[in-house]
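To illustrate the input format used throughout this study, we show a single complete record. The first block contains the structure-token representation of the backbone; no residue identities are included at this stage. The design step must infer an amino acid for every position from geometry alone.
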């Protein structure tokens, strides 16, 4: 199996000593967590006797061992907040981002991304993480009888800078983004449903997934170029007056990104970026935004407005919390 050097937004290569990535301990102050999951080889890859080029050598480091036909022959190591080997269960991966997901219950916006090449396991992992987060959210609600919770959900897909509602089955609709002076960027006419329990919320998430699959079938080989955002907006209010904070509201975004291989191609040829052909503008801009956020206040202008994905997520990225990324 040939595997490209990962183009993760916050990875750093070091051919001698592993060092911290911009998304590693230093970025913890910025509240960005970067984890990597390696998936096991699938049946086809096993039959083809594909070689695994990546190895987790401890909880934080993966090593890339170039296959013999590559020009670069020296192994390269990358460090992250946490790395998970092919035998790891999604439950273990979820434990690494659980605090991020649950922070939305206390009024802190959070975003969990899956970043990686097509077929690296983004959708598989995000499904599991979303499922486990929903369980934990409803457990928290059960254990917090003093508060009234309302959970709303919306789902959208961005393909070639067109925004589609995943809770509205009208496939032709391309939603507009509007600038609201109070709320920031809003997606005009995006359906937002209020979940009346965990089962209902799961049903709504399943509708989003099914809607995305309809789109993927229609798009064929371009399917890996769309981003999916499932947004839960969690509001809670104290039932009785006390010294505690009375109301919280925050959103929790689960973002299953388009395949990153397209982004690396565009890195190689900047002219094509300007021409806008076969380019995933949103993924490129997200990479820039996260790089800038990870270096902190010195980074100057952050180009949120350059793509639909970063415009829609701007509000959540400002107080950035989570960035799991996945390579294989
Ligand atoms: N950790 C894993 N363990 C077992 N199978 C996995 C794992 N991650 C991904 N897969 C399988 O690999 C295939 C590609 O995963 P998928 O999530 O669709 O990739 P992506 O969304 O990155 O394109 C799917 O068949 C999926 O079930
Ligand atoms: Mg996918």
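Output of the design step:
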């Amino acid at each position: 199996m040939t595997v490209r050097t990962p183009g993760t937004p916050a990875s750093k290569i070091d051919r001698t000593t592993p060092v911290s990535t911009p998304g590693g301990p230093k970025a913890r102050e910025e509240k960005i967590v970067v984890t990597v999951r390696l998936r096991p080889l699938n049946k086809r890859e096993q039959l083809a006797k594909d070689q695994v080029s990546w190895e987790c050598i401890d909880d934080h480091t993966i090593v890339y061992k170039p296959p013999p036909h590559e020009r670069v022959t020296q192994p390269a190591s990358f460090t992250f907040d946490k790395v998970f080997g092919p035998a790891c269960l999604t439950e273990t991966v979820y434990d690494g981002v659980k605090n991020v997901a649950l922070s939305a219950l206390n009024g802190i916006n959070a975003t969990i991304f899956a970043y990686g090449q097509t077929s690296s396991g983004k959708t598989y992992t995000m499904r599991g993480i979303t499922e486990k987060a929903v369980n934990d959210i409803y457990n928290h609600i059960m254990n917090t009888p003093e508060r009234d919770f309302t959970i709303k959900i919306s789902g959208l897909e961005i393909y070639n800078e067109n925004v589609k509602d995943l809770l509205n089955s009208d496939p032709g609709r391309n939603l507009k983004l509007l600038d609201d002076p109070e709320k920031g960027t809003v997606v005009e006419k995006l359906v937002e449903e209020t979940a009346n329990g965990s089962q209902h919320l799961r049903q709504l998430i399943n509708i989003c997934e099914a809607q995305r699959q309809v789109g993927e079938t229609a798009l064929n080989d371009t399917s890996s170029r769309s981003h999916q955002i499932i947004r839960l907006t969690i509001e809670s209010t104290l039932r009785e007056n006390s010294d505690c904070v009375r109301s919280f509201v925050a959103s929790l975004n689960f973002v299953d990104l388009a395949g990153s291989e397209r982004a690396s191609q565009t890195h190689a040829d900047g002219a094509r970026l300007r021409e806008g052909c076969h380019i995933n503008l949103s993924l490129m801009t997200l990479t820039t935004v996260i790089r800038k956020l990870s270096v902190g206040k010195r980074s100057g202008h952050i180009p949120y407005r350059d793509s639909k994905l970063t415009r829609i997520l701007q509000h959540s990225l400002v107080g950035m919390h989570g960035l799991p990324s996945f390579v294989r």
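Structural context for interpreting the output: The CA atoms of residues 17 and 69 lie 24 Å apart. Residues 122-123, 256 surround magnesium ion (ligand 2) (CB under 6 Å).
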